[in-house]
C-alpha cells in the first residue's frame, strides 16, 4: 500500500468523530475522538504575539502485521483537519508519532511513520497545477518545518478562514497485534498577516517529475548503487520570490540529494542514519518476535559484556534526519530548478514492504519561497482549488506501473 493510494483512496472521508474544539478565530470542524490541544510557549516572535499549540490527533488503531488485507499498513485521512488557527500565518510545525502516554513511537518499537502530508484543497499546486496545493510531506525522519529559520525570517503559510486542509497519516505496524498510536504536531503561528511578514509559497520538486512521487527500487544485486535525476523540464516558477528553505524527503538507502538552479549546485542534503536508538532495528525484528532492545544483548551504550554497538552486522540503521538548506536567494521565471537523489543500497539497507519487496524510491525537495503578501493574496483569490480527480487518475496510473514492475516474470 503506497502513500498516494491511501491519500486519495479516502479523500472525501472524515476519519474521526467527536465534538468541535474551538482553538481558532472560528469553530473548527469536528475533531477526532481523543484529539488533544495543549498550549505551549512560542519559540520565535513572542514579542509579536506568536503562539504555539500542540495538537495530538487520534487515536489511530493500527492493524497487526498479519492482517491479510493491510499487512499492518494503515492510512488515516482527515479531509478537514483541526488547525491551530484561522486567518493566520503558520510559521512552523513539527511532527511525531506517539503512544498514548506521549512517548515517541518509532522503528525500534515496531511502528513506522511511513508518511504524513498536508494539502490545501482550496488552492492549486505550484508545480502540478491540476492538483490541490501540497503544503508538506514528511516521513519517519520527522523533519521540522521552520519557516522563520530560527527566528531570522518573517514568513509563514497563510491559512484563510475558509481553507480546507487535508491531513493524511500513513503508519506501518510490524507487530503481530493491533496497536494504538497518535500523531502529535506542534504548530507555531502569528494571527493575521503582521506588517513585515511575507507569505510562503510551497513547491514540491520531485526526481520523478512534479506530478509523481516515487520510483520503483532497482531490482537485482547489480543495481544497488545509483542516482535518480529529475527530467530536463525541471521547474520554473511563474513568480519571483526568495527561496529561503528546502526540506527534503528521501527513503532508506539514500546518501545525498542535490538541488540545482540553472545547472548550478545550490543545496546538498545529507541524511543521518541511526542517530538515536529509536531509529535502529535489527535483522529478524520484523518477524514479530520482539522489539529492539528487549532481547538479551541488545542493551545500548557502555561496551560492557553483552552490549554491542549499532554498527554490528545485524543492525539496520534508518534515516533519522536530513540536512536542510536556507537562504538561497531570489528565483524567478527565468530560472530552472532541478533535483537529483543518490542511493546506495549496499551502504544503507533499503526499506522493505511486508512481502520483502523494496519500497519505492523517493527524492523530494520541498521548496519554500517568501513572497510579498499583496502579490500572494491576489494569486490565492484567483485560485479555484485543485482537481482531486486528476490526482486520483495519476495515482492509479502509478500504482498500475508499480504492480506490473513488481510482478514476477
TrEMBL record:
<feature type="region of interest" description="Disordered">
    <location>
        <begin position="288"/>
        <end position="313"/>
    </location>
</feature>
<protein>
    <submittedName>
        <fullName>Uncharacterized protein</fullName>
    </submittedName>
</protein>
<keyword id="KW-0732">Signal</keyword>
<feature type="signal peptide">
    <location>
        <begin position="1"/>
        <end position="20"/>
    </location>
</feature>
